[in-house]
Fold this sequence. Notes:
With 152 residues, this protein is an alpha+beta fold. It has one helix spanning 8-35; strands at 60-70, 75-81, 87-93, 97-106, 114-118, 125-131, 134-141, 147-151.
Amino acid sequence: MGVPTATREHRTRTAGSVVVVLGVLAAAFAVTSFIVPRPARGPAKEEPVAAPVAPAAVRTVSRTVVYELLGPDGARNVTYAAAGSALAQQARVTTPWSVTFTRTGPADRTEFYSIAAQNPGPGELRCRIVVDGVVVAEKAVAEAGRLFSCAV
């Protein structure tokens, strides 16, 4: 038994198959080139640019804030939320004591006000927070050494 040799008919079929495949590929390429959109020739068209939108104006208000400490023997370890919500501290103050500042912010925002102090005693130590002339918080403690706070 020998190895079968390729015949001319087999080679013709193989060559014919290659020609058919190449023809199908050429047809597919031709059809695709007509169907797939091509980029426009010439200068690129510019997209319309939207006008910049200005942010809505935020209405601001300024509030006058007064923190007060009242008592016969001063206060220790005084800590309060000041302008810009920064914390301020004083180790010892004599009473009556007060600090006034202005806080500016959006009109619709709720502001936080706070003061804390320690009563060195004896006697009552009172704290008060006044915003735009209105007392918004008030508290008192009579125990010596007691730490307390007013907040709103």
